[in-house]
Design brief:
9-stranded mixed beta sheet, 16 helices, Rossmann fold, 2 domains, 10% strand
């Protein structure tokens, strides 16, 4: 569903012609260089690069530029985007929701289309969007969605601005999926969503610094400002602005204090909402053309470099004697085996870190119980003292259950981010060593970078979602009818002591059992995340070897056809190289 190259120009196919919700705009820039790169990628038998060039040309032709909404989990990114377009289109929730990069773009009517790994687009009803983009319904993107576009008749988007919803902390810039990594080169500006309570965290600060190195145009938003008093919000904004300025080494614009929930519902303080809309409108109208030109230049440079590497790889395979090529593949296979061994050694190292974290989680649980049990028991006794005699056992049981859940949920809220931080720290050395090996492998001159994804980005958190659920231990803790009868036969003071003792036992069992579930859930997420990370590294190495073998097979086919065939192919590759160099942006030729 992307444009195809015909006679050196792009035929407007795909969403431009087929999608009735697309609003036509005058073509802002011409893209002959991208069209040429798409054609040359096809000639080099690099279909993935050809598709990337066509996709880039399509979005430039349509005047679309991407403003990615980024921020930490629970900062309200999806809610903010819903409020900006005036419609609750994107799913929201108190748990991580977005699992797939989702693009909001202008359309004459509301609509949704989903692209899958096979490259095909499918239109879906708007009310089914959640099934494709939410972590709950599409955990770890198991159904293979590569892109989601939501069309909405929003005046804010009419200029060509596209708002991008991203999964998780730093999702686009250091994501854990190929989809988010692949989107990095296409981000033109960023809407950074921070929180008023609590203020900016260390992870968010690192994210902003990472974003600022790649994207010059940033808009900072302090969301959920209505949860604080005016003075507290002002203090949080000043604190955050100072921290940001120090980290970036330059002044930052004032944070725009808003309440996305209040704006969407039409209630609460609007704060700086008009300023936010004005900032985005100004970005669209004053900087939109510059962003498009920068995007075109960036795409040309990136694709040209990868295609030049592809052409060079094919040339080297042709000029090398067959025996040398076969030795080179044998060396690569040996390097891959060494890499597998290295990954195994690294795996043992990371497993040791996993075991260390498991012990840490056990210590955290013990500390939680030591702190919570006595305080919860005291609170339970006070609660039981104020309850009526009638139905006391059931009410006391409910009070114990409620206290246990409240304290456990508060602990999980604190413990999960801390556990993810510990996992990130534990995996840093593992990722660095893996990337060092990949860099040596790819930098050996044997394998072209064009057919390979980038090296691993830093881990941003667990790669699997929580499977935690709280058990109420109903079979053990529900009061029996017989006890209710006996309660009526006992004196009131003895009955209350008996009920209090049973409720205290229930509270103890609930806290002990469920805190153990939390501990095991965190440990399992660490172990599964480690397994997925190691699997991804092994897949990168295997892909590098497949690329080298494919280049050798093409060269061997030419060599088998005779010297004249090799000479003809070398001349063709040289011509392709010259045409690629001619695609350099003006000022670099």
């Amino acid at each position: 569903m992307t444009p195809t190259s015909v006679g050196g120009t792009l035929a407007k196919q795909g969403p431009v012609a087929a999608d009735p919700s697309y609003t036509r705009r005058p073509k802002p820039v011409d893209v002959p260089q991208l069209a040429t790169l798409a054609a040359l990628a096809t000639e080099l038998e690099a279909p993935r690069l050809a598709d990337e060039a066509r996709t880039a040309a399509e979005r430039i032709l349509q005047g679309r530029f991407y403003v990615a909404c980024i921020g930490q989990f629970k900062r309200g990114k999806s809610t903010l985007l819903n409020a900006l377009v005036g419609r609750p289109l994107l799913p929201i929730g108190v748990t991580p929701v977005t699992s797939v990069v989702t693009v909001l773009r202008h359309g004459e009517r509301e609509g949704v289309r989903v692209r899958f790994v096979d490259g095909g687009w499918r239109e879906v009803p708007v009310d089914l969007l959640v099934g494709y983009v939410s972590e709950q319904h599409n955990s770890e993107n198991r159904i293979g969605v590569t892109a989601v576009e939501v069309f909405v008749p929003s005046p804010l988007l009419a200029s060509g601005m596209c708002l991008v919803d991203t999964p998780g902390l730093g999702s686009v810039f250091a994501g854990n999926t190929e989809a988010t990594r692949a989107f990095v080169p296409h981000v033109d500006a960023a809407l950074v969503v921070l929180g008023a309570d609590p203020p900016i965290s260390g992870e968010e600060l690192a994210l902003v610094a990472d974003v600022a190195r790649q994207v010059p145009d940033l808009v900072f938003v302090l969301n959920k400002a209505d949860r604080l008093s005016e003075s507290d919000c002002e203090e949080a904004a000043r604190f955050t602005e100072g921290i940001l300025a120090g980290k970036l080494g330059r002044p930052v614009p004032p944070l725009l204090r808003v309440s996305a929930t209040g704006q969407l519902a039409g209630t609460g303080r609007n704060g700086d909402w008009p300023k936010l809309e004005h900032a985005l409108e100004r970005l669209a109208h004053e900087a939109g053309a510059d962003l498009l030109r920068a995007a075109e230049r960036r795409e040309i440079e990136r694709l040209m470099a990868r295609l030049l590497a592809e052409a060079e790889e094919q040339r080297l395979a042709l000029v090398s004697p067959r025996e040398a090529s076969e030795r080179r593949i044998a060396d690569l296979e040996a390097a891959l085996r060494d890499g597998e061994a290295a990954m195994g050694d690294l795996g043992y190292l990371l497993q040791a870190e996993v075991d260390r974290l498991a012990r840490r989680f056990d210590e955290d649980r013990a500390a939680f119980l030591a702190e919570s049990l006595p305080a919860a028991q005291t609170e339970l006794r006070r609660a039981i003292h104020s309850l009526p005699d009638r139905g006391l056992r059931t009410l006391a049981h409910d009070a114990a259950s409620g206290l246990a859940r409240t304290r456990l949920e508060a602990w999980v809220t604190r413990e999960t981010p801390a556990a993810e931080r510990l996992y990130r720290e534990a995996s840093e050395r593992f990722v660095k060593l893996a990337n060092d090996f990949l860099s040596r492998f790819l930098g050996s001159g044997e394998v072209g970078l064009s057919s390979l994804p980038e090296t691993l980005g830093g881990e941003q958190g667990f790669r699997v979602r929580s499977q935690l659920y709280f058990t109420e231990l109903t079979a053990l803790t529900t009061p029996s009818p017989l006890l209710s009868i006996l309660d009526r036969l006992l004196p009131a003071d003895r009955m209350r002591r008996a009920v209090a003792g049973k409720a205290a036992w229930v509270l103890d069992r609930l806290l002990t059992t469920n805190s153990s579930r939390v501990q095991f859930d965190l440990t399992d997420r660490v172990r599964e995340s480690r397994r997925k990370l190691e699997s991804e590294i092994r897949a990168r190495l295997a892909e590098a070897l497949r690329s080298a073998r494919a280049a050798l097979q093409r060269a061997q086919a030419r060599q088998a056809a005779g010297d004249e065939s090799v000479t003809t192919e070398l001349a063709r590759l040289d011509l392709i190289r010259q045409r690629l160099l001619a695609c350099r942006p003006e000022g670099e030729r």
